[in-house]
Amino acid sequence: MRSRTAESVGQCGAPWGWFLAWVAVGACAALGLAALLSVGVLLLAAAAVAAVLLLRKGHRITALGALAGPALPLLYLAYSNRGGPGTVCRSTATETICTDEFAPLPFLLTGVLLLVASVLVFSVLDRRRGN
């Protein structure tokens, strides 16, 4: 049985950690674009600063995680609109609230496509770089 040193574990796990950091940057940028008229400018500035720091420190191919970032808000939108499309009413003991919801399928498919594609491309490139 081989023993795994901290150095070998760090080399193996580090690219996925950088990838997840880029996912957070992509999600922040996507939310910044969606909320451009309110707090979007601050979110875009935070995403830009984080991107500059990550470009200086991390592996370049981990920047593919930024493509998976917008998948998170899209998957949340799909979940939020899971009762749609159309008017969806929810009632409690004291009130009934009706809202118009979008079809969740476009949000779901786009989010899954972005997430799966970026993870697959990154894993292939990471494996190729490791060999």
Order of adjacent strands in the largest pleated sheet = 1-2
Class from helix and strand fractions: mainly alpha
Largest sheet: 2 strands, antiparallel
Percent range of helical residues: 55-70%
Low-confidence blocks of residues: 1-12
Radius of gyration, Cα only, in angstroms?
19 Å
Average pLDDT rating: 84
User: What spatial form do the alpha-carbon principal axes imply?
Assistant: elongated
End-to-end CA span: 22 Å
Relative strand content: 5-15%
- Elements, N to C (H/E): HHHHEEH
- What number of structural domains do the residues give? 1
Number of strands: 2
Count of DSSP-assigned helices:
5
Give keywords.
131 residues; mainly alpha; 5 helices; 67% helix; elongated; disordered N terminus; membrane; transmembrane; transmembrane helix
Give a verbal description of the structure.
Helix content is 67%, strand content 9%. The chain has 131 residues and is mostly helical. The protein has one domain. Strand 1 (86-91) and strand 2 (96-101) form a beta hairpin. Helix 1 runs antiparallel to helix 2 (40-57) and helix 4 (71-80) runs antiparallel to helix 5 (104-130). The longest helix is centred in the first third of the chain and has 29 residues, at 6-34. Residues 1-12 have low confidence and may be disordered. Keywords: Membrane, Transmembrane, Transmembrane helix. The chain crosses the membrane at residues 21-54, 61-79, 105-125.
List the helices and strands and how they pair.
Blueprint: H1 6-34, H2 40-57, H3 65-68, H4 71-80, E1 86-91, E2 96-101, H5 104-130
Antiparallel strand pairs: 1-2
Helix pairs in contact: 1-2, 4-5
